Amino acid sequence: MSVVTLRAMTFAAIALLATAAMAEPEIGSRIDNSKGSVDYSDLTGKDASSRSMDRFARCRAAQRPKVASTILDLPYLSPEQQQALFKFADGGVVDACLGNDERRLTFAPPAMLGGMAEALILMPERKDARRALHPTAESLVAKAGYAPRNLAEDFAQCVVEQDPVTVLALVNSVVGGDIEARLLQQLTPNLGPCLSSGQKISLNKYSIRSTLAYGLYRLMPVLSAPSVPQQ
Asked: CA-to-CA distance for 44 and 95, rounded, in angstroms?
């Protein structure tokens, strides 16, 4: 039986303590059950756990984009969002996203939310919005009704506002790849200034990727709108 377990995690401890205990599939069982499902190649090599989590979350969101969008529109890591996420990740018609009945995934909500956000950002119908991305003044974002609802969203929104194009490239990069590493390094100078004074957060590269993907998904309508000249 395919099993997905999500552990509740607050933003104050957002470092992803992710594990993926994957049993070796039997000969002849390595065919994906669903397009975009976790593939055997995701289970080996560098960053296999993060890569398989990202693939699984993208698969779920691609199969049920309306439900995924409803969940992502809730305040980041709020109790109501996590409750909806638990239900969304619990089997049903999208069991095939694990790709093989012998697989087990254990991960925190930020990993699931990040992969879901990536899938929706990269949907073909958002191609024009992706091309139109541009930095937007914080005041304009707030005026448009996209003010952050908690510290996590404040951090993500701050980084995304400054360089949405690089965040989009990060979302579109291979998890654990050289391009991802280069883009994370490029974004690093923006991280510290976006933390509130005295705020301490443990972040690894995948939690940064997940949080910024969520932030880009949330701000995409504003960041893809025609730029307003500054007075």
From this structure: 21
